[in-house]
## 1
Amino acid sequence: MKTVKKRFVPLVVALGIVIGILIGSFYANHFSGRRLNIINNSNNKISNLLLLVDDQYVDTVNIDSLVEKSLPKILKELDPHSVYIGAKDVNDAMQDLKGSFSGIGVRFNIYKDTVRIVSVIKGGPSEHVGLKAGDRIIAVDGEPYVGKSVSNEETIKKLKGEAGTQVRVKVKRAASAKPLEFKIVRGDVPVPTVDAVYMVNDETGYIRISSFGETTYPEFLSALSQLREQGFKKLILDLRGNLGGYMNTAVQIANEFLPQGRLIVYTKGRKSRREDYRSDGRGSYQHMPVVVLVDESSASASEILAGAFQDNDRGTVIGRRTFGKGLVQVPIEFPDGSMIRLTTARYYTPSGRCVQKPYTPGDEEDYDNDLLLRAEHGEYYSADSIRLHGPKFKTRLGRTVYGGGGIVPDVFVPRDTLGFTSYFKEAYLAGLINSFAYAYVDGNRKVLEKKETLAALVAYLKRQNLVEQFARFAEREGLKRRNRMIAASRKLIENFLMNGIIYDVLDLGAAVEYSNSNDPFMERALEALK
């Protein structure tokens, strides 16, 4: 009998161990909130947290909304340029890079609670149906659209949309007693990124690139061909205000000017091996003198192109220190149509410098305020005030250049503050200059439309005493007249008024050409090309 009992002891012990394990697992799972599982699998913390909130939180929670709000905050902890873009905003975010958008194709201005068409974009849907500059939109899709509810955002929302969809627009036209209604099928509206091309003098061509998108390179080749027909022998390439875009586009443009085998840029990241981008020797303008204009708003692909010219000693960079964005983002789409732009590498100019300015992950305030800090240090007014702490590098011919914060130009151009008074500042910030430009064009459209060239339009406008007309207009709009300040700002005010009127009557290219006619950047560029 004792022998039989002894034979069952191991079985009883084994059963006790098994039961103990089961009981322990039960209590761990049901009373600890799976804490051990979450802690030991940190990669799954976020998904586990969302499951717990969805399953056990005291109130009902919209998990999708919680995720949408959380993703930007997570990416913010990485760097200033890794961002999340919601599905409804992806098309708008990619618009500048695609070189077109879907809509009706008009430039508009809101003046006295009414949407007024400033110009009709050539080749767009509105041009095809007969909409004209000066038309006032009074209804959209059968609903009145005037008054306090009218805003830029709401107007864009009503007029833009998917290609192929229709919108009905009712307008008031000066020459028509009754309102006119147009049915417009939305379509692709071209948005050129090369927005000014002209000959500065008998041998110097000028091209301005506003961003680097899908259509920029063919647009650029077309601009070069246009200048070549006019006999250009030198080039001014304007990248001021260009925030960047596709790196490959900048590489393609640089390739046009460099001999075979020259390094244009290289990229390198933690999970990305170094990749070199070199010229293939097929460029058509390898020996043409080039000047590149930049300022504090020139960023990313603009800095790649300027750096390629500078480090290869291929052209003179003129202006002010560029923005300082040396991080490469890759777009990654989610199944719902949203996307992230994730930084995967840094890019380096041919000399080996990374132009990315310093940043602290998670601290966007200092990064965003960098341009203001430059102003406080006096950097926009004196080259000696430029603060760079990056290492030194050598160009192909041995000149010293610096990393760690943008491209420092070879020739510095200070910001022009002549005529900048509090009167001008108030007028500009209140939008009165743009409002006057539109009102002036709208009231003189028949006369102005006969001035078909820039020279004819400028000659006419110079005789109209625009500054005095503006001062009276601004006073009616509530801006107190200050004669001394108006006299001090006369030239500045006139230039802005002329620029706005020329843009509305002719186009952006003509406005740029006029603006450049008394620009210190252009003066320095022409001096350098001599």
## 2
Amino acid sequence: MEAENLQVEKMRHSLSHVMAAAVRELYPTTTFGIGPAIENGFYYDIDFGESKVSDADLPKIEKKMRGIIARGCEMRAREVSRDEALAWAKENKQVYKEELISELPEGETITFYDLVDPKNGEVLFADLCKGSHVENLKEIGAWKLDRIAGAYWRGDEKREMLTRLYGLAFATQEELEAYLEQQEEAKKRDHRKLGKELDLFCFSDLVGSGLPLFTPRGTILRDMLNELAQGYRVRCGYRKVCIPHIATVDLYKTSGHYQKFPELLKFISQESGDELALKPVNCPHHSQIFASAPRSYKELPVKYLETTMVYRDERKGELGGLSRVRAITQDDSHVFCTEDQVEGVFGELIESAKDLYAKVGMKLTLRLSFRDDGDGYIGDAEMWEKAQTAIERMAKKFEMEYFVGVGEAAMYGPKMDFMAVDALGREWQLATVQLDYAMPTRFGLEYTDADGGKKTPIMIHCALLGAIERFMSIFIEHTAGWFPLWCAPEQVRVLTVNDKAEAYVKEVEKALRGVVLDEPIKNNQLRFEIDRTDDSLGKKIKRATAMKIPVVLIVGEKDAEAREVSVRTRDGEEKVGLDELVGWLVARS
């Protein structure tokens, strides 16, 4: 499998060079940025100068690429000095390549790859590149160009805006077609489209980018998901706390987040002159609740939970629907415990995550997120080794399938990141449990041990949903907007055939008002509406279907006579007696 993956990677990387060669032939004055292989394909960032290029131009670029591939061209590596590479970039007016080359160390050997026609030795395209590539383009499998987008040079919005050409590439035509089908389905499920159609959330230019506004229906969905997630922790003895949304910058300097978030949203109080910031995280605040009173080992573990917003100053171009926002709601929790209690706390949270994601219909795998050799972490090497060993031991104990992601750790400690697979087979990092030896030390947190001595607690961070906005974006697409009965904003809609059965409709209404669903959330009062408009039954059904109401009850004169209702769901239609209706609904929650 590894060899197959490497071959696909080489194929995708080679295709980015072929695309660049085709573009240069069609648009000779272009300058090139970078063109890597990526998941599912490849791209190249290109400056087209005065030329205007759109998706409509992709077919002719693709045709030119297929012609190059048909010639059986080869990818040939050659080494040049830094000076030779710079001379090449200047001679060919490749300013972006020149910038990259100039940053390389003096004396370093640099690799170029030439795209060569073996029949005549013609070099179709030469590019600064580390490789690796297929030797002959005939090794390339199934591919097609996908779309065009804008991309700032080196991801810096203060730099030039380049045109990014995306392509798709797979080992076989079957894999390519399966991916294209998945993409078509993903478009239908796009949470931004469904969010508008189902009246869940909106945005306002006046409020600002990345700041979603949730409608009554969307707020119900948020609340239901949050109650599910926090309910697990309430049952495990977590207690609610409440913190402000701002703090002095000194709090984040102590925690280390000031260095982590240089874009911290700071402001100066006009009244006091205090330097304050909108909170990017909640853990420093929660640490101060723990620190507010003397603690004994007998109290531990101390478990806090809170659903609250944090704020991040994301780049405008990276914001999109609910997937990436500036105001982020977290179903957050923090535990302060002894080393002996870590395994028990982790066990509760792992079991909670497994059960929660089973309820929302997503399979879980686990990524153990460890540190790399970088310097963006706090705490010493011994602490990190101890924490990482403990986390891996717990993954094995709870029989979780896992892999290790080096460089994915939080700045203060390693973590378990739960990777959820949605209905389209896409993998998302959502729930997280993090082990933290560093922050309690930085804040001087302590408790009195059994021997009377002072000890530093260990801190465990957990969010089962992660960012609720992001979870909602994934959940909306996972369900295609057909939410399970327990969390649907509108669970039942009653459609009247006409006003001749109004007395019976009121009996149905009375029965529905008595329905309380207790799974998976306790005391979940049934949410229903009655469509008494003068529209035809066909229009009423169409309207309810468009809003993806899980249960539709049709009530007419014949239903009144039979003391029943016609129940429509995605699975079909059936008759249910009025006396059995409550039990029928409860059984499906």
## 3
Amino acid sequence: MLAVGLCQQAVAEVRDSVEISEIVVTGTRQKTDIRHLPMTVSVVSKQALTQRNQPNIMPALSENVPGLFVSTRGMMGYGVSNGAAGGIMLRGISGGAGQVMVMIDGHPQYNGIYGHPIADTYQSHYAQLVEVLRGPASVLYGSNAMGGVINIVTEQNRETGHALKINLGSGSYGTIQGDIAYKMNNTKSSVSVGGQYMRSDNHRPRMGFEQYGGFGKLSYDLNQNWNIWADVNVTRYNSSYPGAINAPMLEADQWITRGFATMAVEHEYEKTSGRVSVYSTYGWHKINDGYRADQPTAAPQSRYFRSKDALAGVSAYESFEVIDGGRFTLGVDYQHIYGNAYYTSRETGEVLETQNKQSGREENNEIAVYLDVRQDIASWLTIDAGIRWDKHSVTGDEWVPQAGIVVRPSETGELKGTVSKGFRNPTMREMYLYPPSNEDLKPEKMMNYEIAWRQRFTGITYGINIFLIKADNIIQTVERKNVNTGEIENKGIELEASWHINNNWRIITNHSVLNMKYHVLAAPEYKGMIGVGYMKDRWDVDLGVQQLSGLFTQTGAKEHKENATIVNMNAGFNATKNLLIWLRGENLLGEKYEVIAGYPMPKATFMGGIRFNL
């Protein structure tokens, strides 16, 4: 994986320790001081996301959030289908299985058929910041928030004026990237638009990747309390899958289009706030499964696999203060999940009759009501409790409780404890697609027990978490049928700290230790990162080291674990007020390792470019 110490985030935490970095929205849906929340929420700032000059947010998250790991296989591009990377693993809970939810402005983003997030679509150029809630968030966000949520908060800057940013770069293996973003704000409205293009040959034959897309957001203040906004994004990427080293593939190509659109009306008064929104995330997939290059009898595919899906919903919530120091949040969610998978002839384009579908069903519906209550009992004590009732059109009712407590023995520290339930409804693939499908599947269920301590001093912030996860009803394929038989039992410790030594030097570090009773792929038993940054005059340089130990690339009878030490560097030189020249080097020691079995990672790679801020 990639590793650079994004140490300017530490500077921001020191300078704005309460005013900015302590305010989050993911844990409660409205702006809340993190010191009053029992949940563990990590914030990755805009500065940390853009400092790396990476077009995708996932590398920055994997480095900055303890317990979070994102699998990758090359310089650029995660892909889908066979051999895909971009698997999000949070405390050993898999986003690839749909157990970790990615959201944009609080709205779910996942494939309607397979239920998993698609990593290539989450880009830096439209992200203001990213909040990662570690642990179940199903009370507020329902199914797929079983192991946690990653909430991408889009541009919300209302500072009056215009701003134009252009970032261009190129580097190893024919890799190029470019993005442009323009913002215009006045006293009542704001407009943000942006576009992105990137491509890479990557370090193996038949591993090319190309992506382009655009984003737009319009916001208008009806008055000082009410706001209406809408956004839209469309991303297209083309990817080739080379196969494992010992099983090379030919013609394994993918053409993917993903998008999302949202419209919302929200208000904020002194004692009440709320939002009503409609949203949709959608996609079209065309995949050639290819054929083995090392088998002379293998032949090209005569058909394409195609799918289209959509997740459309309505979300409404109201948060209000009844007693001083308390908040009640009442909400309702409705989702319509649609998906259709089929094959077409490569020669004629006609739809082919296949045995993939075991049911004619192509859609499901969910409706839910939830209540979250948070109350300051004293200046040093906060309690929180929540409940959700969720009804799925096939699996039926699910009750989801949550409770937590925060004790603040001093102004600079807080002790937190939570007990929370998470769940995941079976996907359309698991219920209806392919021979293992089973319409009698029940939701997966998980309980999380956690205690945490966080403290801030002048120039220093640190936190430590201890958690225990127990889950059952995990969907597995047994004797060619999907059944609720699997279990999860994970426990671990997470540590994060930052130290702003002086105006020039800073250090940021995080570590996670994970013990899994039942081993899962792409979940390291230990992940640690330490970054040292130096900033003076026009220079800003960061050197980061990431250690991976006990990373499972295969499980079962042929279980295999990888260990790797990855050294990365990022440097920026402000040539003028508006022009930054940057250089990024990854895996500088040329470490040989794999994140996915059969897919060796590239050795040392370099990218360089320029960034305009006008």
## 4
Amino acid sequence: MVSSRFNISKKILRNIVLSVMLPLAAGPLNVEAKDFSKLVILHTNDTHGFDFFEDRKDGTGFLGIGAIAGLKKDLETKGYEVLLLDAGDCSQDNMLVNFSEGLFAFKLYNMAKYDAICLGNHEFDYGQDILLRNMKEAAFPVLSSNIIVTATGLPFTITSAIIKKGENTIGIVGFTTPNTINSTAKGNVEGLEFFKEEKLYECARTEIQKLKDSGCDLIIGLGHMGSEEANIGFRSDDILLNTDGFDIFIDGHDHVVKNRRVNGTLLVEAGSYTMNAGFIEYKDGTFVENMKTFDEIKGKYGSKEIDKAITAELQAIEKYYGKIIGKSDVLLDASREPGLRTREMALGDLTADAMLWQANEALKLSGKKVHLAIINGGGIRHNIEKGDIKISTIMDVLPYPNQLNVITLKGEKILEMLECATQLTPKAMGGFPQVSGVRFKIDTSVPYLKGDKYADSEYFAPLKPGSRVSIEEIDGKPFEKNKMYNLVVTDFQLKGGDTYSALYEKSILQSRVVIGYTIFDALLNYIQTELNGNVNAEYQAPDGRIDIK
């Protein structure tokens, strides 16, 4: 366990000390007056442990961290100064990094010689103690300027860093999405405040001025913020519209490709999962993004050291989780958008069916009937490919170790919850419900009107539940607003995760029954027992539980 929030590695401390000792240059930042022709900025974001090479044979795949490191080395041999940055969510999702609770990701980034990263929301998924342990491993600054420890009023980690590349002095400011409080278990962020809106903008202005005063030639925002509409007030775009001084802003969180200018600043993002390599260069007096796609550079670069480390880690994982527990006759797609965050998906049906089945099995002797199951689509993370299903497959699909809870609530509360979770449909939202035991419709022509803001949440309750969503049936029977229903959800949802703050009420919490199974257990047991080890054509396509018009 790390003894202090500021117990950083000697390498990081040395880099910071060296940076503040650099000669200072008076006057305002003037990028055009400097020669950046030999500077290349490589950037990644949302790698989520997809740090290995994989060719999907369709022009897409994962370059892997070895290829990123190889590209960096190749550029350096050609005389370029290379700044390598990551915009967060590097340590959770794929089993390659989950196995070590994120530590292996930091080890790989050390091997690749990253210059700095910012904290993403999923860095907190193992809890603060584990995150601090992982950060201590880092030989590079781990940044975030807008996370404050409420007990002390001090930053959770280093807010910014100054890095020297050739003749250029570069300042980098980190940011982490306030959406973290809704996208990880509440206990993982207990005691922390994530600045947003004016506090966030003032924080950014302060850091910019500090770096200007330190003589930086170039100032970069490195943020895990995203541009999603639901996060207005703390998106990368909002920071740039409310500040001046960033030359470049490298973003993450929403898993998209960005290359545009906002308030004069170059805003970029490289998608996700090392499917691309962000590549910023200086041309004709300005910085431009020239992102390298998978198909463009696959197989051209690599690192034997990183490949060896990944192979060893995968062998250790296979030893523990390589047991085959079944097979699938169909491909179950875990795409985000369009996919699990925008519409019903067969994999969502399977997962919710497993939850409902497991809850009813667990409560069979009590005589209590569980009527429906709801899981946030953002919690389902990986395909089930056609062929053998291993324990590691289930771990990849459901990497969050969330307990299943059965709660009792009125039909009108279910309606409120579904309306809130689909407020952006057909746009993507992590809370989009994948369901079992319920059928409902969404009318996207009706606007989502905000009511009161939920406590300890970034989301608003629907002003008029039932305006956009209508429930046809639950448990095969016509829906009744005043009827009490038994619902199985994860503890993440029950604590208000994603859009599910409607569940975080005293009366609902008092009704809960913890059934003793995680969502991982449920899917594993359902496939092995109820499906006799075979996911067949029943899950070839969505079942028609959600009608979107």
